[in-house]
């Protein structure tokens, strides 16, 4: 409209003459006061071409207006042209340095600033350049040159903000506002600090003071949209930006890249690859948001390549770098990356400025999660749970921590709150949910999880988990089913052993009445359908017969002789209660000899020889009474060698039932016997008593010595 040469409507000339007489050309000071830099540039160019203003002065003002309009390239052209003129004003160098600074050309900015005369503006610029170069020594040097003036204090507050010292920046802004209520723009800076401190409601309240006076401010409306994004959602934030773009003022060009960047964030990453890459290192958050986009697309390696060379300076950068290292470490199995992630999380969560914030507590939970200290994980997650009730990612980590500490009931409930299909199809989710089902005595639901999966390595791993966990929990039917499928896919002997043990467990459950009898048919079907060779009868393969020789007659095979039937013997024994002095003894060979009906008596020729038979019976009774009530020996009983030899001699020491360890071996003297008269399995301390006289034995070489009876403390058999 300002470039029009004639009115849009050509009628009513007299009225137009009155309008022309009533108009006057705006002055530069008026346009600058209204911050109409576009109009100011148009006026300056008109005067420069008309020769109404000196060219050097016009160039300086054009550069100034272009700089404040955000057209730094135009300002750069004007200032560079001025520096090439003879007799250039030295102040041009500091203006050129400021232009270089806003274009990100920090080396050229420093070189130009050093050519300018010393002044407060030069010191402030070098102060910011020292921060950009991370030169702490120069930073402190220029900090000492700052004065107690508004411009220098605002510059100091800006450095505090960029170094994440938000509270210090707020204190400076509030102090200046107390003395200068007309500096309304400072409310935007205060609101921005509160936004960084996660006080979004407070930020909105402070920002409203400025928006009442300047409702079309791009920076203020953008900050309001960011607050809506944090407080509500991306759609609410996008609506604020839409009103900004619809009612764009002349200053809209200043923040067009910032608006494009934020629209990508509000739309959940839509158009990220078109907008964000050119803005990396132009807008500080662009690199971080592009890394987040790659993480959401599961492109962990690309995210790592983008952030690996970044030296973190803010908590957000430390957190994001920790997340990327944790994701990459889990993906490639690198303990080094997991260690780096754990250190970054601990650094943020343990800092004084972040320890009581929600991100700080999440960082400590992540640190302990990587250290597998899940009790500590729950302490921090419980403190922020109210902020993430419907957050699937939070619930996923929270449920894992619950299950890892043995609280499978609550873990199952939280797992079932998750709605994200990507998480629900992840093997970690499926395996933990299956374990929760099994531990909560719901093995059927765990088996249904497997049935819904496609055949893959993950399904095989889930089968192994179901088979082993169900076996451990006594849910043998589903364990047998899982081992059966595993055995079919991989003929590993361990799967057959697990299947066999699970089937035995099912039989025991049926006998105990804890499993329906109908399950037995299913188990038998599982066993019959197996291809394990242990269930097939082993037969010797037939050997081929040699071919018959020519001219010879083949002999018929000998008749197959049936094996002789095995002889059985029925013995009837009378058992009497043992006493302290005797017990009933039987000789198995003698019983066989006496009970053999096929053996004839030595005196069978004379069946009426009663004298011989009676004498034989008397001899047998005498031997029996002698063994039972034998007379007391007057000789001192000596220890025999066979009484002092190793107790376990002659036993199979490889048998796990036999414990012949040196720690419990005892050499039992002949004068002692066990306290309770039993034998022992080698446990506990042995207790002895003096052997009675009736237990004395004759020292006959042809009679075998009975081992002394020993009784232990824990396991005794009588």
Automatic annotation (TrEMBL):
<keyword id="KW-0966">Cell projection</keyword>
<protein>
    <recommendedName>
        <fullName>Intraflagellar transport protein 56</fullName>
    </recommendedName>
</protein>
<comment type="similarity">
    <text>Belongs to the IFT56 family.</text>
</comment>
<feature type="domain" description="Hpc2-related">
    <location>
        <begin position="637"/>
        <end position="687"/>
    </location>
</feature>
<feature type="region of interest" description="Disordered">
    <location>
        <begin position="529"/>
        <end position="567"/>
    </location>
</feature>
<dbReference type="GO" id="GO:0036064">
    <property type="term" value="C:ciliary basal body"/>
</dbReference>
<keyword id="KW-0813">Transport</keyword>
<keyword id="KW-0653">Protein transport</keyword>
<dbReference type="InterPro" id="IPR011990">
    <property type="entry name" value="TPR-like_helical_dom_sf"/>
</dbReference>
<feature type="region of interest" description="Disordered">
    <location>
        <begin position="691"/>
        <end position="718"/>
    </location>
</feature>
<dbReference type="GO" id="GO:0030992">
    <property type="term" value="C:intraciliary transport particle B"/>
</dbReference>
<dbReference type="InterPro" id="IPR030511">
    <property type="entry name" value="TTC26"/>
</dbReference>
<feature type="region of interest" description="Disordered">
    <location>
        <begin position="1"/>
        <end position="25"/>
    </location>
</feature>
<dbReference type="GO" id="GO:0097546">
    <property type="term" value="C:ciliary base"/>
</dbReference>
<dbReference type="Pfam" id="PF13432">
    <property type="entry name" value="TPR_16"/>
</dbReference>
<dbReference type="GO" id="GO:0035720">
    <property type="term" value="P:intraciliary anterograde transport"/>
</dbReference>
<keyword id="KW-0677">Repeat</keyword>
<dbReference type="InterPro" id="IPR014840">
    <property type="entry name" value="HRD"/>
</dbReference>
<dbReference type="Pfam" id="PF08729">
    <property type="entry name" value="HUN"/>
</dbReference>
<dbReference type="GO" id="GO:0035735">
    <property type="term" value="P:intraciliary transport involved in cilium assembly"/>
</dbReference>
<keyword id="KW-0802">TPR repeat</keyword>
<dbReference type="GO" id="GO:0120170">
    <property type="term" value="F:intraciliary transport particle B binding"/>
</dbReference>
<keyword id="KW-0969">Cilium</keyword>
<dbReference type="GO" id="GO:0015031">
    <property type="term" value="P:protein transport"/>
</dbReference>
<feature type="compositionally biased region" description="Pro residues">
    <location>
        <begin position="544"/>
        <end position="562"/>
    </location>
</feature>
